[in-house]
Records
---
Amino acid sequence: MAVRHRLISTSPQSVWTVLEDGTRYAEWVVGTSSSKPVRGHWPQLGSAIGFEVRLGPLSLTNETVVRRCVPGEALELEAKAGPLGTARIAIELRPWGDHCLVIVDEHPLRGAGGTVHNVAVEALIQIRHRAMLARLARICETDAAEAERHRPLGQVVSPAPDGGGARA
């Protein structure tokens, strides 16, 4: 299983705000050139995002379906990859002081992807996750900094209940 983590310098709520926006999926998911919600209200159970992957002149479209959602804490997805099958991608958010520890766990679920899964494929997934988490961190930290710049002077931001003292 490809498990990777990254500490993002913002609150779990800031990270969740990006994850729950189905229109931003292609911004942080490596290999995805475009995305849009196609079914339900993302990220509710059973909702789906359609995505496109481009490899040179080739273009493949598929979808990712929400299989489990605990708002602000966990998002589990089933990404469909046509003849390669499907993969389970679990994203967990944990408060870590004033920051958010993001843990991504991905493995083949159905189809040919599971048959050819080996150490080399695992290494490629790790490289992809490193890039994906770096993108997610950049987006979340930039969004949080932008929100802080637009906060009215003198406005006090109190910690969220059970937020570990993190600023919202």
---
Amino acid sequence: MTSAAHPPPTPPAPERTPGSSGDSWAAGGLTLGGTLMVVYGLFAVLQGIAAIANDEVYTSFGEYVFAFDLTAWGWIHLVVGVLVVLAGLGLFTGATWARVAGACVVGLALIANFIWLPYQPFWSIIMIVTGLFVLWSVFNYRASSTA
């Protein structure tokens, strides 16, 4: 009599558990992202005030398709900066609405910094890279569940 041995059960696929290294990176990234958003927003507000108050503060490095008056750019940076500060403060709560608002506002800030490249190329590139990190943090964060 031959008894067929059953194959050993296959182990379940590893699940991402709260507190794993990926979650801690994203949680730390979310906190850092919120801090960076607040700092960026304050700098954007200052940029906006400088552009509104005195158009000679910034110079353009050639003719570009995105030619706006610097006063208009000042208002754009001022409004986007205030929105980024508010969304950054909301990220500290970890609420879903804050992450959605943060992603939308950072998306607007990325577009504004891309178009702002002719006036402040180095700063715009730094802020674009920072914005991409904040977006990564917002989209990869998973709230830990207490079950």
---
Amino acid sequence: MVRLPLTPADVERGQRLGALLRRARGERSMLEVALDAGVSPETLRKIETGRVATPAFPTIAAIADVLGLSLDEVWTEISAASRPVLAS
């Protein structure tokens, strides 16, 4: 399967996702959160640093659950900057 190149918007959304997860993780260790979510610490590190801009939905759902984030909160946060601003 050939993956299409990421757009600048994809990269920016991945960076916002990583920042959200780092903030939500707070003082908890990356290892603890990753193991609780059933993902590798390396996967969580790559997502938090934006190196994986489009992680799989089940991965994000598991991490969000461990961090006490709803998927609505995650989507609102990562898509906020990509919405067009309506002129008044």
